[in-house]
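Supplementary Data S3. Sequence and structure tokens for construct A.
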Amino acid sequence: AKERLVAYFENGPGRECQIDHLYFERRSQRWPIIVNESFYEQIIGDKNKSFQYDLFGMKFEPNLQSYGFSNLRAYESVCSEVLKLCNLDPTSTIFLQYFSDIGILPLIASQHVDQSYGLDPSQFAIKAAIKTQEKYPHTENVQFNVCTKKDEFKTVLTKIEQNKKKNASLTCVFGPTRGELERQDLRQNKFIVSVLRECDLIDRLIVVHRGV
């Protein structure tokens, strides 16, 4: 399969696509999908040149284990619309996103708010977000953390409530979720959403359905 892909994209009709990077995915089993247990081998492209997304004037270097985006332009449009709904400047002073993935929204929001949080159940996504954050000193106020349990999420919200300034508002974004989720992850998402619904601290809640 790898040889056919290389032949198609390097020497065949696929040359017109002008692909810079192509990765071949291996899994220990086909079904059910085990999230975070895939291996990716680069078969086209310079292995010394990092694969990056150019979004909102920043360069994001994804970890392939953090899933990436099947339609980058659509994802950028979704992010733009979410930021409009957040109305971060000047009414919101705290921003939090669950399923922050590679950190796009928290890093952008950090330029308009006092505190910005990015939470994600994937350690690979959080590592990728922190790697991007290190390139941009003006985003140092963003706090990225792995969050997989309802109690962990409650702890984050409690700390925000304890440290928030008087009259500060909190905007929360949930999603977009990823497609390759196991049943236990879907169940955990339900618990996270229940915490969001019951939290009186939140002034604005935006739920983004995965449609990209």
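Construct B, processed identically:
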Amino acid sequence: MNYKNIFRKHMEPMLMRLIYVDLVDGILKDAEITNRRKLQDACGRQFEGGPRAYYCPECRRERMLKANRESKARTRKGTTRKLGSIDACERCGKDYKIASALQRFCPECRPIHSAEHDRETWIQFYHKNKDRINPARNDRRRIEPTRECVVCDTVFEHKGTTSLTCSHDCSRAYINKNWNEVYGPRYREKKNARKKED
């Protein structure tokens, strides 16, 4: 009796039906959760859409047609750049190979520009939201400069670290103590079982 053939003939179709039903049920449940009635700001129409749907189907179609018209016009004018062609970096002026449509910088300057841009946007965000950011930040900064060692109970300066012990020796003792409490009983049981077998 070949069990593979029996499985293929009888069990596989049944399992595939169950998997299909589960998938369809899951998709329908997800669709019920994510698809909601939304009101579009631009035209004022209500439409059903997912979490990232910003426009009703009619406005979306109009926007796509407009974007396609503008893209073709740019192509006709010759202002588009083909992927793989050469362009000059806006930052250092060095030539680079275009890898994406919106690329403006060479691979060396891109991380530098990203860091500068992040810094500028963070400063703007901070100045707008500092009433909300500062209280939590100040609470984190107000940590007592000293802490009591969990092993020898001496008071030590932790210098802003999360260290619970005052020295390397206390740290080893703390780790050993925790290991003995958590894993020690199992280790001793296995060791005793091996001794009994021998």
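Residues 146-197 form one domain. The radius of gyration is 32 Å.
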